[in-house]
Design goal:
The chain has 454 residues and is an alpha+beta fold.
């Protein structure tokens, strides 16, 4: 219940901030170009809060926080007095209308740049991208990868963190590219490894890609000692506590964490007797791993426990990416650009069937990750805010009527032909756009609940 409340609050904050940023872009540019704004609403439906400003604008927070709008004076939506007509949106030059439409997504990108810059100044913690032994017969093995390889750069682009390296690899593998990976091996020598994904099988699931090409992050041999337990998880329900050393499970001796994890995964929803050592005394607990579906669609057990990592080992793998203020802005622009292109390419691959539509996520998944990020700390939550802001910016630029990109398409056509599209064509486009949007939202929600139930 507590985790659900955190996820809900994190979702409301995430969407509230990003919708406000997006709509403020439209609002600010419209006002600067002389258009009269009637209402600025965050959310749809019944107003929960409404205030009329001295500028005559109604500022609203509405009940359904899945979007927002800026209502401008427009002769197509009602009678407009002769005095106010010059301030009507439809009376503005096409260039001004394009600027107003573009401002919403542009502010989402600017917000992401601001957030990333702040993160880079403060310092972004991460884990060094050290690789484990590649799977036998995999593309990674054919490319010469070895256990202990530290990824330095991918196609010439530095990748100081595991998260950054994995994102770069996923993008390039899905594109079917020949990837040059610069590594430092376990003897501290610089090597160039080649990952040839040009003839890779049709990889559609992001969560499976690196596993299928044989690349996995290094998993050091750790003792089977509990470091943390997840609230309301199977480990906590069984009574496991941080510091407990697992001795045996179902009568079988446990030597390290990997063996313990493998045993748990093989017994979803099956009660197990676990012998632990706590404060020098041996105890027996009853543990029933929960079940979830892995990337291959198989049911595996999990208990919600994290191993205890020796401080010296953790310190050797830890890295902090930090820049000065000017460098941080440049790095933030680059990061926003890269994530925007990755989002756009992923959407394109889904459209042509080269990526699974299962990758599409909706508010339930966003709430889940927002809750996790909020619990993980400020930097993690800011990173999620920036990523969702970029996604909103990219999605809103798609040429789908009812989205900003659809309006932009209309205005670009108007620029070319010298006159607006007919009202009938625009209305038909709006209807098609609503259908497309509803189908995408339905699919995203279906994926959300599939993940939730899986």
């Amino acid at each position: 219940m507590g985790d659900s409340l955190i996820s809900l609050l994190a979702l409301i904050v995430t969407l509230g901030v990003l919708i406000t940023v997006h709509e403020f872009g439209h609002f600010w540019v419209a006002r600067r170009l002389g258009v009269k704004v009637l209402r600025f609403s965050v959310g749809f439906g019944r107003p929960l809060w409404l205030r009329r400003g001295r500028d005559g604008v109604e500022y609203v927070v509405a009940a359904l926080p899945l979007g927002g709008y800026v209502k401008m004076l427009d002769e197509r939506e009602g009678d407009v007095s002769a005095t106010d007509a010059p301030q009507a949106f439809n009376r503005q030059p096409v260039g001004s209308r394009i600027a107003i439409v573009l401002a919403g997504p542009a502010f989402n990108f600017l917000f992401a740049i601001l957030v990333y810059a702040l993160m880079f100044v403060v310092g972004v913690p991460g884990i060094k991208p050290v690789l484990d032994e590649p799977r036998s017969g995999s593309l990674a093995e054919a490319g010469g990868f070895r256990q202990g390889d530290l990824i330095v750069a991918i196609d010439g682009k530095p990748t100081p963190t595991l998260n950054g390296a994995m994102l770069e690899l996923v993008d390039r593998v899905m594109a079917g590219a020949l990837i040059e990976v610069e590594v430092r091996d376990d003897e501290d020598r610089t090597r160039l490894r080649l990952l040839d994904a040009r003839d890779a099988p049709n990889l559609k699931e992001m969560v499976q890609i690196l596993d299928q090409v044989g690349l996995t992050p290094w998993r050091p041999a750790l003792p089977a000692v509990i470091g943390q337990v997840v609230r309301d998880g199977a480990a906590e329900r069984a009574g496991l506590q941080p510091g407990d050393r697992v001795v045996r499970i179902a009568g079988q001796p446990v030597t390290d964490w990997e063996q313990w994890r493998a045993l748990i995964q093989r017994h979803p929803d099956q009660p197990l007797r676990v012998w632990i050592e706590r404060n020098g005394l041996e105890q027996v607990l009853e543990l029933t791993p929960d079940a979830r579906t892995d990337g291959r669609g198989e049911s595996v057990g999990f208990i919600g426990a994290i191993p205890e990592v020796p401080e010296a080992l953790a310190e050797s793998l830890r890295v902090v990416v930090r820049y000065g203020p000017l460098e941080a802005v440049g790095a933030a622009v680059g990061k926003t650009w890269d994530m925007s292109l990755l989002t756009l390419r992923m959407l394109g691959r889904m459209l042509v069937g080269k990526a699974s539509l299962d990758n599409l996520s909706g508010p339930v998944t966003i709430a889940h990750f927002a809750g996790q990020a909020a619990s993980a700390g400020l930097i993690a939550f800011l990173s999620l805010l920036a990523l969702v802001s970029i996604s909103l910016g990219v999605l809103n630029l798609l040429p789908v009527p009812v989205l900003d990109g659809g309006h932009l398409l209309y205005y670009l056509i108007e620029l070319v032909k010298g006159s607006p599209l007919s009202e009938a064509v625009q209305n038909l486009g709006q209807q098609v756009g609503i259908v497309v949007l509803l189908l995408l939202m339905g699919l995203a929600l279906f994926n959300d609940f599939n993940r939730l139930l899986g």
